[in-house]
Amino acid sequence: MASRSRGAAEPGGERELLSAGDVARTIARMAHQVIEKTALGADVDDPPVLLGIPTRGTSLATRLTERITEFSGVKPPTGALDITLYRDDLRRKPTRPLASTRLPDAGIDDRVVILVDDVLFSGRTVRAALDALRDHGRPRAVQLAVLVDRGHREFPIRADYVGKNVPTSRSEEVHVLLSEVDGRDAVVLRDKGVEE
Amino acid sequence: MKHLLATDGLDPDLATAVLDTAEGLKKTLLGREVRKLPTLRGRTVITLFYENSTRTRVSFEIAGKWMSADVVNVSSGGSSVGKGESLRDTALTLAAAGADCVIIRHPASGAAHRLAGWLAGTGTSVVNAGDGTHEHPTQALLDAATLRERLGTLKDRRVAIVGDVLHSRVARSNIHLLAALGAEVVLVAPPTLLPTGVKTLPVTVSHELDAELPAVDAVMMLRVQAERITGPAGPGGSHGGFFPSAREYSITYGLNEKRLRLLPEHAVVLHPGPMLRGMEIASVVADAPASAITEQVRNGVHVRMAVLYHLLAGEEEK
How far is the C-alpha of B17 from the C-alpha of B23, rounded, in Å? Predict the structure, then answer.
C-alpha cells in the first residue's frame, strides 16, 4: 500500500495521506499561520480563543495551542464546543450522545474565535458550530482551522487555515486518527466500496 | 426510544444514556444567558393532565420550550374531557392535530400503556407522567440523576424508600430503576402501606426506620397519598385504617431532626414532592444541607429535556 503514493484508494482498501510525522509538521505550520494572521506576540493582551469541535477537533485545538504557545510565547485560551444539539441531521441518525462544551472563563465576547475541526467536508458541522457560538456570546470574528479539507461543500463556508487539501470522491472517507483518541497519528483515505 | 411508559423493563444502558444526556444538558446550559437550544424546532409536544400537578407539568413545559419544541397544555378541566370524550378519542384527536409526543398523567394505572397502543400507527410518542399507583418514570430518572450527582454512582449504594409505598407510583418506578442501575433498595413502611406482591420486587423490607438509617446512602421520603386512601375513618381522622393517626405515623415513619443525625455524613435526603412538612418530613430536615429536594426539581427539567431528546431527536423508530 505504501507504494501507492498517488491516486484513489483501492475499493475497500485504504491509503495513508499523512504519516505521524506529517501530522506533527502540519500542525506546526498551522500554528505559525495562526500567529502570523492574528499578529500574535508578547504585546497582545487578547489572543484568539481556540475552540475544538469534539471529538478530534478538541485534541487538535489542544495540540495547536501547545505549538502556538511554544512559537509565540503567548498561550491562547482553549476550549471545546459541542454542536450535537445544533445539527440539522439529528432525525436522520439514531440518537447521538452529547459531548462536552468548555468555554474559557473570560468568555468569547469581542474575542477572535478560531474553530478547530479535523475534516472539512459538507460544511454542515461548521454551520452548526456558528449557530452554537451565537448562543454563547458575540465574538469579534470567527475563523476556521481544519487539518484536512476534502471538498464537496454544501454551504458557502471556507477554512482560514488548512493543513492539507485532499481531492476526494464521495465514495471515499477521510479519517483523521489522533493518538489521544485512536492510539496513533495518521490521516487515511478509505474507499467505502460500491455504496450509494 | 419510541415511548417512555415505565422503568420496569427499561434497558439499563438506555437509562444511563438518558442520565448522561441530562448531565450534558445541565452543563451546557449552566451560566448561559440564552437558555434555548434549537434541537426540537418544529416538533409539537402536548401535555395531557387528568390530575393536578405543579412540578411535573411545569418542568415538562420548560423542558420542551428550552429545546424549542412547541408545547401545548391540555388539562381535563378546560377540554372536551369535561363533555365526556373518552381517553381514546382525546388521544386520537391530539395525534391528528399533529402531536409528536403526548405526555399523559392519569388517575388510572395503565392509562399510558393504553394510549401508546391506540397511537401505535400514528408515529406519536407517549410519555407516562404518572398513571394511578403504577409508575412515574421521569420522576425516578430525575431522582437517579440527583443521586448520581451527589453520590457519584448508584452501583452498590443503599437507598431507603420510606412511607406510603402502596399508593406510590414514584416508589414503584424508583424500585425498578435503582435496581437496574445496581443500587440496593430497602422499603421502610407499616405493613398496611406495602403493596401485595412486595416479595416479587428487587427489594428488602423493614418496619424499623431507626434501624435502617445508619446504613443507607440516601433516604427517599414519600407523601401519604390521602387522595388515594379511601375507607372508613379511623379515630385520628380519615386514614382508611392504614395507620391509627397522622401523629402516630409521623412519630414512627417521619424524618425528624433526631433521625437526620442517625444518617451517615454523606447521605442524601430526597422527596418527590409535594411534601407535607411536619407529617413525613420535618421542616428543618427539608431545608437541611443533606436535603436535595430543590436539586431534584432543577434536575427534573434537564432529565425531561433528555427524555424528549431521546424520543424526538433521533431517527424515527418503528
Answer: 10
Chain B contact for A90 (CB, 8 A cutoff)? yes
Q: Which residue of A has its CA nearest to B35?
A: A135
Return d(Cα B175, Cα B7) in angstroms, integer: 9
Q: Are strands B218-221 and B268-270 parallel, antiparallel or unpaired?
A: parallel
Do B28 and A131 lie within an 8 Å CB cutoff?
Answer: no
Q: Name the 3-class secondary structure at B44.
A: strand
Q: What is the pTM of this model?
A: 0.90
ipTM > 0.95, yes or no? no
Task: Pick from B23, B37, B43 the residue to mutate for testing the A interface (most A CBs within 10 Å).
Answer: B37
Size of the A and B interface in Cβ pairs below 8 Å: 51
pLDDT in tens, chain B (318 residues): 899 999 999 999 999 999 999 999 999 898 787 889 999 999 999 999 999 888 999 999 999 999 999 999 998 877 777 788 899 999 999 999 999 999 999 999 999 999 999 999 899 999 999 999 999 999 999 999 999 999 999 999 999 999 999 999 999 999 999 999 999 999 999 999 999 999 999 999 999 999 999 999 999 999 988 887 765 554 445 567 788 888 899 999 999 999 999 999 999 999 998 999 999 999 999 999 999 999 999 999 999 999 999 999 988 765
Rounded CA-CA distance B40/B37 in Å is 8
Q: Which residue of B has its CA nearest to A95?
A: B314
Cα–Cα dist A96/A99, whole Å: 9
Q: Residue B77, class by beta-carbon neighbours within 10 Å (0-12 exposed, 13-18 middle, 19+ buried)?
A: exposed
Taking only residues 50 to 69 of chain B, the set having a beta carbon closer than 8 angstroms to any beta carbon of chain A reads: 67
Q: Which residue of A has its CA nearest to B37?
A: A85
Q: How far is residue B83 from each of residues B78, B86, B223, measured CA to CA in Å?
A: 10, 9, 32
